[in-house]
Amino acid sequence: MNNHFGLKKPRKKSVMREQKIHMEILNHIKKVALEEVIVYHTPNGGKRGKVEAIKLKAMGTLAGIPDLTLLHNGQTYFIEIKADEKSRLSNVQVEMKQRLESSGFKVCVAWNKEMVNEFLIANGLKLDTMSV
Q: What CA–CA distance (Å, rounded) separates 91 from 69?
């Protein structure tokens, strides 16, 4: 389905699925990550009116920033959550991922807990490599 700008609108079912996965992944991280890890969501998505969008941009909202930010021992890590393996990063998200990685940050694109586990283990952020 296209809007009046000729752009495809995200399917509501896909958005709802991504939100569900997002919450599952966030709860999983809180359960298995080291206690010192701080994790938070940057709410860049969703529908906003033009005035609200202008205000948020003026306040520093940056398009393409990954969904979750993890802080640990002076390091910052990012996780972009997608609904499934068929979901693609937008051009803005691809550009931001490249900018972050070229600045030395670790960025993970995930659509399930197993992918997040691999990222947490690879970066020493998980309590126990055996826990789910």
A: 20
